[in-house]
Amino acid sequence: MVSKPPAGDPVQDAPQVTPPQHAAAGLPAVGHTLRIAREQMGSLRTARTLLKVNQKDGFDCPGCAWPEEDRRHVAEFCENGAKAVAEEATLRRVTPEFFAAHPIADLAERSGYWLGQQGRITQPMLLPEGGDRYEPVTWERAFGILAEELRALDSPTRRSSTPRAAPATRRRSCSSSSPASSARTTCPTAPTCATSPRARP
Question: Are 127 and 194 in contact (CB under 8 A)?
Answer without folding.
Answer: yes
